[in-house]
Design a protein that fits this description.
- By secondary structure, the chain is an alpha/beta fold.
- It is built from 17 helices and 22 strands.
- The strands form five sheets. The protein has a six-stranded mixed beta sheet, with helices on both faces. Strands 18-19-20-15-21-22 form a six-stranded mixed beta sheet, with helices on both faces. The protein has a four-stranded antiparallel beta sheet with strand order 2-1-4-5, with helices on one face.
- The longest helix has 16 residues.
Amino acid sequence: MPPLLEVVDGSRSFPGVVALKTVNLQIQPGTVHALIGENGAGKSTLIKALSGAQSLSSGQILWNGQEVHLRPDLALELGIATVFQELMLVPQLTAAQNILLGREQMVTRGGLMQRAEIRRRASQALSALQLNVELDTPVQFLSLANRQLVEIARAVDREIKLLILDEPTSSLSGVEIERMLDLIRRIRKKGVSVLFVSHKLPEVLAIADRVTVLRDGEVVADLPAAGLTEEQLVKLMVGRELEEQYPYVAVPAGRTVLDVRGLSGFTGRFSDIDLQVRAGEVVGITGLIGSGRSALMRAIFGIDRYQKGTIQVGEERLPVGNPAESLHRGLVLLPENRKDEGLWLALSVAENIAMTKLKQLSVPFGWKSNLKVGQFAKDLIQRYRVKTASPWTAVGQLSGGNQQKVIIGRALSIQPRCVLFDEPTRGIDVGAKYEIYRIINQLKESGIAVLMVSSELNEVMGLSDRLLVMRRGRIAGVFERPQFTAEAIGQTALGVKEATL
C-alpha cells in the first residue's frame, strides 16, 4: 500500500539556520506515526510544512503518490488538519461555534445563522468521537483539556484523512492524558492517520505504530514502535545517555522564605491553603487539571486578587494583587503559558531578557541603551545556554525550551528569594528539561526557595523535597520525600483516599 503522505528529501533554511536537512518521512494510512526530537530539532518546521503554513526550500511532499504544493486551504481540502500546541480557537465564541468555525455557510439560511443547527452539528461531531463538552460555554471558560477536544472535534468533523497533533498532552495530567490517548485510538479506528508529536516518551510508546526521530534537522531513526524503550529513544534524541533523568540534590533547608496562611480565592478556585517553602527547598504541587494549582500560583504572585489569607516573604507581608511589589520583595513567577503571559514574541531575545532591568540599562534622560541591553543579554544567553542566532532575533522564532530559558534568565536576573515555577517544562523536550532541572537545583543550592507546579508526576516527585497534592481547590495531602509513591499521590489526587496532613 503506498504511503498516505510522503516527504522526500525535504529541506528548509532560514537566515543563519538550517532547520531541516533532506528529511524523508512516510505516513501510512490508518496508523499513528510519532515524531519526536529535542526542541530545535526541526519538528515545528516540518509540521508547518505539512500544514501548508510554510513551504520547503527544497524537496517534495507527496499525497497519495502525487506531488502537492501545500497551502493551509489546500491541506484542509485534501484532508490534512493540524491541531497546534497553541490552540487556534476564538475565546469569546462557544464550543459549538468554534467547532463549526469557517463553515458557517453550512448552517446559514436566508443569510442568517441557525443557532440550533450549529448546536446540532457540533453535538454530532462530539458524539462521533464519544466526547462530552459543554457546547454553549465560551471556550475561554473551558479547561485546557476541553479546549483541545473542541479543536480536535472541529478537525475530525471535516472528514480528514490525516490529523497532525502537536503536543496534545503537554498540559494534561494522568486521567486527561489517558482520555486523549483513547481518543486518538478511536480516531485511528475510523481509518484516519495521526502524526503524533510529543516529548512524553511513555505516551509515544503507548500509542504509536512507528516513530521518527529528528536531531539537528535530520532524521536519525525511523523505526517500528514495538520493542522500543524510553532509554533508546532518549539516546537517539540527544545523541548521548542521560545518566539521571531527574537529578535530585539534597540541600539542608534554611529559614522559611514563603509563608502562605489561610489563602482562599474568589469563586472557590482554592480554599484554606497553608504552605511554607524554606531557603534551599523545592516544594512541589501536583493534582488534576482544574484542581486550583495555577490559580493559587497567580494569587501568591499577585496577578489575581484573593478573598482572605496572608502571604509573607521573609518578614514582610505582601499586599493583595500587586505583582510589582512581589518582584520588589524577591518573589518571581514563571507562568504556565509562556507565549501569552511570559514573552513579547515580536520583540528580540535581548529586549525580553532586559525587560526587568531597563532602568539600569538606560543612558541619561531615560533612553534605553542597545549596547548595554545587548551585552546584558549576551551574558545571560551564555549562562543559560540559549540557542539563538543573535540576541536580536525575535524570541518568537526560538524553540519552546529556549523560550523558557529566556524567561528563567530574566526572572533570575533580579536575584529573587523565591521562584514560583508553573509547569516549567511544558512542551519541552527531554534534553532541555534536563537543563532546566539543573537550573532548579542550582537555585536550591544557592539558598533560593522554589515552589513548583507540574502535571508530570515523575518530574515533581523527582525534584521535590516535599510534595503537596491539590484536589478541588484544597490541599488533600502532604508527602515528605521518603513517602513519595506514584500510587499514593495518584490516589490522593483522585480522591480515592486522603493523605495525612
